[in-house]
Known about the structure:
By secondary structure, this protein is an alpha+beta fold. Strand 7 and strand 8 form a beta hairpin.
Amino acid sequence: MYSRDAVDSAPLRDDLELLERHWSYMDVFAESMIARGPTLDADRETATGSLHVLALPSVEAAREFVAVEPNNRAGVYREHFVWRFENLLGRSMWEFPSRVAEPRFLIVGRSHLAVPVSAEALPTELLDRLILYGALTTLDGAEPDGVALALQAPDQDAVDALIDDERTGLGAFAEVEIHNWEFGGRR
């Protein structure tokens, strides 16, 4: 699930009681969590949205996760994109061997026609930087809807070069969003 923040959500994001309720809610899902964390503005400090990737038992459980999540109930988010996610790396973000001092990015490529390149076929220089990589399908699982990946890279130019690299297959997606991103969790 990727959620975009509402325009006026900054005061809510600064509310320490709401933050604790959000983290406590996430703690309930710790065993099923694949990745989580805020997307960030260019300053890499102001939140613009949130990513939550979980292995949930059903579509109903995914919908309930969104509906009950404290930030959502408080009005932090203006919209949600909820998909089925096929974890093509087979790991969580906590298993990623982090590169110190490099920023992280979330990329979402959307298309009903394109499918992600298999992880084995990706260029080594991308594979080594991938935190998260997976195919997106509609909630009913009937239609492909794109790809989501999180990666660590030196800067935006390096991310752009990876997207332009034909071997990544990202050029096949009609819409590609790039977000500054960081690992979520208690601080």
